[in-house]
Amino acid sequence: MRIMFCPITRRPKENPILGEDWWGTAKTSWRVLEAEGSYGMNLWLDNEGEYRGDFPKEKYYSQLTIAPAVVPLYGDSVWVGSWPEGTDQPPLDLLGRGYAGGGFPHTKGMFMGRFAISRHGDGINVGFVDGHCARVRVKSLWTLNWHQGFQPNYNVKLP
Known about the structure:
Elements (H helix, E strand, L loop, with lengths): L29 E3 L2 E3 L1 E4 L29 E5 L4 E2 L40 E6 L4 E5 L22
């Protein structure tokens, strides 16, 4: 299971309080029920398709093999996965403390924040569909091809 953890992250408390200690930060791993780690998946690659009305089926890659090589698969994250959009607002800071009101709500328009942390200087490590990995600057996360029809944002303002 050591492969699930970035070597620079610390593990959270043994018995996290629901909604309080479950999220990771730039320096700690996340934990939910029996799962734990410090990387998150690009959930637009979950070929099970549509999840609620916020995530239209046409944005998903129906098979991993049809996704272009430059699509992010996993990256350093404060949660197990996310549905990033170019229009998502940045979090309050890049330490992984979330948004106003605390945490990372399961809310459209805030999903990029789960990856937008300064774990490795001003960026995170990302593994792409073709198997290569690269350090990506936080600001550049809004320009990666996360899903079919993704519209990049080159003008995001970070905290």
